[in-house]
Amino acid sequence: MKAVFVEDAEKISVKDIEVPELKPNEVQIKVKVAGICGSDIHTYKGLHPFRKPPVVIGHEVAGEVVEVGSSVTKFKVGDRVTVEPQIGTGESEGVITGNVNYSDTRLAPGMGDWLGTMAEYFASPEEQVIKLPDSVSYDQGVLVEPLAVGVHAAFKGDVQPTDRVAILGAGPIGLLTLIAVKAKGVKDIVVTDVLDYSLQVAKEMGASEVINIKDNSNWIHDAKQSLDKGSFDKVFITAGVPGIVNDSLNLLRKGGRVVTVAMFHGQQSIDIEQLQQNEKEIIGCMTYNRPDTEEAVEIIASGNLAVEKVISHKLHYEEAARGFTIVDKKKDKSVKVLVSFE
Q1: What mean pLDDT comes out for the span 173-188?
Q2: Which residues cross the membrane (predicted)?
């Protein structure tokens, strides 16, 4: 089968490899489409903490079941599916509590002998496979996993319909967090970014207001004024840039909550005085758990929100190298880039 490899930092190739041999508890999926995620870019740049080149890349997937292992009972050939790509291992807190995202030794595609999803076939344990409703296309199905990140963020933020919400960063995760927040009934949502085209997508996906913060030293004031309601109840950080934590605190009302969704590298300074004296909160947020994934499927299946507007490109797997380049360099007005295996 054909598979997309990150060979080394910023080097993508397509190779012929053997179709993975199916274990008794596994489902063999004919991949229809995979997605390029921000964490895939971290691997591509050689920055990912545990997914290291050379590796078959990818963890977002939608496809059709073509074979099932001898002990599989929940799926059959022909089922349309996606995958929750994480397994808690050992006796870590995540395994014991059922919060897989707490597991110190999580297994994910591209680790050990579990190949990534950017290949013609992808084998997954049955327990990680999720059936797609007939109303959900493969292109929508591949968005279940990243939308689950946004759903978990909304859960960690304890989002309420009357909240005033700011989302800092209009990349795919920021935009899908927007969808998750809207699904909670929130009306007042401001999205910030430095790219006009990303902000236009945010507007199309339902943001109340958008603000380009590039070269705008007054953007925090502008954000507070944009809804004529002052400071925000909840702020979601979906871009891990320097200074953004304190920016978030400056946007927040007393007693409000910041949720850190983005992947950070290095240290961030925190205005501890503002945090303490105003009883503001900063909450960590890491991936998702099964209820988040199930809710993501429900949001997409409802058809009420424009989830698929996050997709900017769909490229054949032979063009995967171009896909990684345009995502990494933010070229061609790229937002969410899909890789097709049809």
Answers
A1: 98
A2: none
3-class SS of residue 64 = strand
* Nearest residue to 7 (alpha-carbon basis) of 39, 38, 52: 52
> Model confidence at 186, in pLDDT bands (50, 70, 90)?
very high
Strand-pair category, 80-83 with 232-237 = unpaired
Q: Tell me how far the alpha carbon of residue 211 is from its chain's centroid.
A: 22
Distance CA 51, CA 53 (A): 7
Give mean pLDDT, residues 181-199: 98
Per-residue pLDDT, averaged over 57-81, amounts to 98
**What does the block give as tokens for 218?**
């007054």
Place of tokens 């971290």: 42
The neighbouring-strand residues paired with 188 are 164
SS3 state of residue 121: strand
235 contact partners, CB below 8 Å, separation of at least 6: 165, 166, 167, 168, 248, 251, 252, 256, 257, 258, 259
What is each CA distance from 186 to 149, 159, 201, 316, 327, in whole angstroms?
A: 18, 8, 18, 37, 29
The pLDDT of 206-211, averaged and rounded, is 98
Helices (H), 190-319: 196-204, 219-226, 244-251, 272-277, 290-302
Per the CB < 8 A criterion, the answer to whether 37 and 61 are in contact is no
206: left (phi over 0), alpha (psi -120 to 50) or beta: left
Residue 150 tokens, joined: 């946004």
- Chain centroid offset of residue 250 CA: 26
| Radius of gyration from C-alpha coordinates of the chain | 20
Q: Which pLDDT tens digit goes with each residue over 92-148?
A: 666 667 788 888 778 899 998 899 999 999 999 999 999 999 999 999 999 999 999
pTM greater than the 0.90 cutoff: yes
Q: 275-298: per-residue pLDDT in tens?
A: 999 999 999 999 999 999 999 999
Q: What is the mean predicted confidence (pLDDT) over 8-33?
A: 96
